[in-house]
Automatic annotation (TrEMBL):
GO terms for molecular function: aldehyde dehydrogenase (NAD+) activity. This is Nucleoside-diphosphate-sugar epimerase. The lineage of its organism: Bacteria, Bacillati, Actinomycetota, Actinomycetes, Micromonosporales. One of its GO terms (cellular component) is cytoplasm. It comes from the Bacteria. Residues 4-215 form the NAD-dependent epimerase/dehydratase domain. Pfam families: Epimerase (PF01370). PANTHER family: NAD(P)-BINDING DOMAIN-CONTAINING PROTEIN-RELATED, PROTEIN YEEZ. InterPro entries: Epimerase_deHydtase, NAD(P)-bd_dom_sf, NAD(P)-dependent_oxidoreduct.
Length: 323
């Protein structure tokens, strides 16, 4: 039985982790912008040092999920949370006497500009000017530096495209866009998507957090197989009773996303409908999980068919797709 402190505790992945941790008997607390007293979550802005750091006192494990996950926020806003916030979370973990710190990064640390198919963790990360990509790489550096200095044992996880009940980027938002006929795929829909169902991701994170041999290591955690974007998002079209996906050549799709995003931004503010998000759907390769299989015993159990069946039931329960 352990005490676990989670940053970004109200988020999709953090809630799934907390549910699993409590089910096995652990005590879970955390920090988020909004408090949740019933769940042991205090209010705090990880971009700043503050009293929230004291709430980690007594934690055995700190899992750092808090981040700006967006293609619509500039470099300063993302650096403040994704990089400086990582340092503040590390400082809290060290002061708490925690024995392990799990840093959430992303497969996007390999860059959106291209990487070898089946890329592994030994492949160099690559900044590409995208604030999210660049700050995720910098956040890894901050965490691994703390490990190298002997301040705390650190493990870095790079989740794939996480979907399932509660996922905003890869479940709720696509469904909203498809329902309103604002979803378009570039590259004829043939770009490669690397999904991981939330339950499998939680399995991998808890293995990484608990294995002594995972200290100082970086692990990619996906479902183990890439699928064409048109296949992944096609599930949502069928749930909504629509034909699709709608696809286009990449230059046209990027232009449409730029124009549409500008219009949405003028009316509603920042939006994930933009050229950067569109280019993300043009990836031509996927990511190896051989290291996680070998060192952690990680084995994804939920394939896309089953994951989408579970996701569809949740979407129907939420009234987001027809019953």
């Amino acid at each position: 039985m352990s005490v676990v402190f989670i940053t970004g505790a109200n988020g999709f992945i953090a809630r799934a982790l907390a549910t699993r941790l409590r089910a096995r008997g652990d005590t879970v607390t955390g920090v988020d912008l909004r408090p949740d007293e019933a769940a042991g979550v205090v209010a705090g802005d990880i971009g700043e040092e503050g009293a929230w750091q004291d709430a980690a006192a007594g934690a055995d494990l700190v899992i750092h999920t808090a981040a700006v996950v967006s293609n619509a926020v500039g470099l300063d806003g993302q650096w403040r949370v994704n990089v400086a916030g990582t340092r503040h979370a590390l400082d809290a973990a060290v002061r708490a006497g925690a024995s392990r710190f799990v840093q959430f990064s992303s497969i996007r640390a390999f860059s959106d500009l291209g990487f070898p198919d089946g890329v592994g963790e030994d492949h160099p990360v690559r900044t590409d000017g995208n604030p999210y990509v660049d700050t995720k790489i910098a956040g890894e550096q901050v965490a691994l530096q703390a490990h190298a200095e002997g301040r705390i044992a650190v493990t870095v996880v790079r989740p794939g495209d996480v979907y399932g009940p509660g996922s905003r980027p890869w479940t709720v938002l696509p469904v909203e866009l498809i329902r309103t006929n604002r979803f378009l795929l570039p590259a004829g829909g043939h770009g490669i998507f690397s999904p991981v169902y939330i339950d499998d991701l939680v399995d991998g994170v808890l293995l990484a957090a608990g294995k002594p041999e995972a200290a100082g290591q970086v692990f990619t955690l996906t479902g183990g197989a890439g699928v064409p974007c048109r296949e992944f998002f096609g599930h949502y079209y069928r749930m909504l009773g629509k034909r699709g996906p709608i696809v286009a050549p990449t230059p046209l799709a990027v232009t449409v996303a730029t124009v549409m995003g500008t219009a949405i931004r003028l009316v509603s503010g920042p939006t994930e409908v933009n050229a950067t998000s569109m280019r993300y759907f043009t990836r031509t390769g996927t990511y190896s999980i051989a290291k996680a299989r070998r060192l952690l015993g990680y084995q994804p159990r939920v394939d896309l068919t089953e994951g989408m069946a579970r996701t569809g039931r949740w979407l129907r329960d939420q009234g987001l797709v027809p019953a």
